[in-house]
Fold:
Amino acid sequence: MSEEILNYHQRLLARTRKVGNSLCVGLDPVLKKLPPADGNPADRIKRFYTDLLEVMAKRRLYPAAVKPNIAYFEALGIKALDVLYSLIAEYRSEGILVVLDAKRGDISTSSGAYAEAAFESYGADAVTAAPYMGSDSIGPFQEKARANSQGIYVLVRTSNPGAKDFQDLVVDLGQGRRLPLYKVVAEKLVEWDRGDLGAVVGATALGELEQLVTFWRSLGKEMPMLIPGISVGGIGQGGDVKEIIRAIRNGGGDPNLHLLNSSSGVNYAYERFSRLSPAEASLKAMEELFEGMR
Structure:
């Protein structure tokens, strides 16, 4: 009897339930913020994130996922991209889901190439994508994702100041239906989803986050969210892990289905815990986030 093939939503749930948390750690190597160290930029990044993985393995404390932001690696040249490739393989070898934060999106042929890079060349479990060009842009990611049950997190409601320029615009859908643009995108995700789509929703957009959970459930689905902007120890964009969990539950959702991402708060925890090694400091920040999720 053949083994059942899980889709990305099912893989995500299996992972969060196995490790008992829905934490996603952003791997955002801003060189000037990394602790001082010898070596070229690529070597410093490699050592910083390899040390973190080794401490996780030693303590058997893992997040559900990590989210490397490809922009920071691209900015440092080809050697840093080689490091990204090896880090993805190393983190995945420990069972950690890898979401490649690339925010790609273009006409169908270009999207197909972007998807091939993310899923086949880098081997990521999921990728972030921009929906502005519609189904022609997202569909090729879904086609490439199908073979290995990978996922695509589509930008829906971000919490940056300029988000209101487009995302809050009200769209007249006819027959008396009027929705802000971000909800139009959210509704399209339900239509397009094959167990492979999720949504990027900012951690500081709490009201919209809860409304989206309710909205999706009214349409018969709960779309997984990737929620960036979680702070810990005063470092980060200001999203509070307990408030986000509460908002998901208030909307009738399952917190296990949604990844809560902290980048700066984990990466640069050594600024708070000067007596610990940078990797041990990051793990301590992760433990604080685990506690907030209980």
